Amino acid sequence: MTPWTVRRLILPESLTAPDGWLLRGAVEAEHESHSDAWGNLDLARTPHEVLTILRHQRYVRRERFVAVAGPASDVTPDPALVLGSAALSLAVDNNTHTGHLEISVRPDARRQGIGAALHAAAVAGARAAGRTTLTASTDQRSEPAPGPATLTPSTGSGLVRSDDEGARFALAHGFELEQVTRYSVLDVPLEPTFLAGQHAAARAAAGDAYRIVTWDDPCPDEWVDQLAELETRMSTDAPGGGLDLHEDRWDAARVRATEAELRERGMRHSVAAAVHGPTGALVAFSAFKRPAWTDEFVHQHDTLVLAEHRGRRLGMLVKTANLQRLAAEQPGARRIGTWNAEENVHMLGINVALGFRPSGGSGEWQARIG
User: Fold this and answer.
1) d(CA 103, CA 64)
2) Most buried of the four, 153, 174, 318, 338, by CB within 10 Å?
3) Does residue 1 carry a pLDDT above 70?
4) Residues 260-277, mean pLDDT to the nearest whole number
């Protein structure tokens, strides 16, 4: 009998509710795991964020499983007793054959079978929901040099260490490496003359047929349907490697629901988009997620240029427009983090030209479970 038990997390009414300790403990375990993987909490979520995310289930059904030290009952409420967490995300309307799994175990509680038990509970939950595949990610602070102790994804771009703890766990549980993504960090603020020069060069290449519009949430009504189309195209136009993922359809209602969730999480969503003058259509966009609890770190979220408008430096144009805006509105920002598929050579080239430096990455894995 193990000295811990796995249970499904019941959504508490609040973080201070009698059963809120389980959620707080799950987030603590995730924070310890993030710190161990990255050396900081830039990519971690706050307890308030996680509670908010779990309350919003219209487009993604979210389940949590926790491993708790001690017996299944008569446990004194204490977040420190939560040794690990599994977060299972199941799309509601699209890609209903698959789910995404994140497992976090406190570093000093590893190698006791906790991760395997959490994995088993999440797989059972996914199968009960009719899912036949699962995806998962493993973190790495740096990409390894080519060699015998590395794995190459089905795309042929990027590497992960085969002896990495996360990679070993994924392989042992039937996952195959389908993609490698690069995590890059840009130190800001950029020198204003440099940024202005990059923006001016991109604007000259784009020509007079395009203009820039910007907004924070909510998206103006005149653009919301077109923003939904751009979000849909993110699921088909951005590289997906060998992952079995199909079109993820967005509409205006989903945009508004996502905006509401981000506001409740305390996240400011800042968008710069390119409008094609002759058609009046949004054809490119770039978005920041700006957490309310820190001025220093900003998430570079989605960036997309529609395929039919590529080759005009619109990616650089919308990115530099948002960077100029960030410098004016959030002078305390010191770093911006972003993810890109290693095979997405064009977007990586834009980032490198702006000064983003490789700062790690992830392996993207997939397993057949049914």
Assistant:
1) 10
2) 318
3) no
4) 97
